[in-house]
């Protein structure tokens, strides 16, 4: 997977004042998925757009996509971990170890962390009927508790969302939970910048 920055278009050539960077996930095996060392480089702003993550070799100083002089704009302001709600208990010890290592590095760098548990409608049939009940679900509360215990992310920093499927029709109730998570990301990022 290629490292890429995503900007959200505001209209007339303008963009919102935040960007998203998405990286491939961790895998159980050592020679698949993204390397922890590369994620740490991303946190510090050392990875340029277009870098192809390799599961067997980390980005090195002097490589084409290595940013040796990152600016504040290049650095990560909020680390967000995304995992399907029904996969929390299935996450391998190897993946959890990698995630914890990145989280601790982010903490040491002063980067706030959030988590998003997706596909809540697939994990909980009651939520599938009414997304407004997402934070009333006993099962989803258990998943939040389990995820918090696994990674050390506080429960109030774990958000539940329903992923949009192939149906492109927007739904106000779905939008509310997604926009709430986005609002928290932006607020945490603002707090990070204000603390500098």
Please tell me about this protein's structure.
By secondary structure, this protein is an alpha/beta fold. The chain has 2 domains: 1-76, no CATH class; 77-196, Rossmann fold, CATH 3.40.50. The protein has helices at 36-43, 93-108, 120-123, 125-129, 138-151, 172-195; strands spanning 4-11, 14-22, 79-84, 113-118, 158-160. The strands form 2 sheets. It has a 3-stranded parallel beta sheet, with helices on both faces. Strands 1-2 form a two-stranded antiparallel ribbon. Helix 2 links the parallel strand 3 and strand 4. It is globular and about 55 Å long. The model has no long low-confidence stretch (mean pLDDT 90).
Question: Layout of helices and strands, plus pairs?
Answer:
Elements: E1 4-11, E2 14-22, H1 36-43, E3 79-84, H2 93-108, E4 113-118, H3 120-123, H4 125-129, H5 138-151, E5 158-160, H6 172-195
Parallel strand pairs: 3-4, 4-5
Antiparallel strand pairs: 1-2
């Amino acid at each position: 997977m290629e490292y890429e920055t995503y900007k959200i278009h505001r209209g007339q050539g303008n963009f919102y004042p935040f960007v998203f960077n998405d990286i491939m996930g961790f895998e159980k095996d050592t020679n698949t998925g993204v390397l922890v060392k590369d994620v740490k480089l991303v946190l510090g702003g050392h990875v340029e757009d277009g870098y192809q993550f390799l599961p067997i070799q980390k980005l090195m100083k002097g490589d084409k996509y290595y940013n040796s002089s990152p600016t504040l704009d290049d650095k990560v302001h909020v680390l967000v971990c995304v995992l399907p709600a029904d996969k929390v208990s299935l996450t391998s010890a190897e993946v959890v170890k990698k995630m914890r290592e990145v989280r601790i590095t982010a903490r040491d760098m002063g980067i706030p962390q959030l988590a998003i548990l997706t596909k809540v409608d697939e994990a909980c049939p009651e939520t599938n009927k009414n997304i407004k009940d997402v934070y009333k679900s006993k099962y989803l509360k258990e998943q939040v508790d389990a995820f918090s215990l696994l990674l050390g992310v506080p429960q109030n920093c774990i958000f539940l969302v329903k992923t949009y499927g192939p149906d492109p029709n927007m739904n106000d109730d779905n939008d509310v939970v997604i926009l709430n998570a986005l609002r928290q990301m932006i607020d945490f990022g603002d707090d990070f910048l204000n603390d500098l």
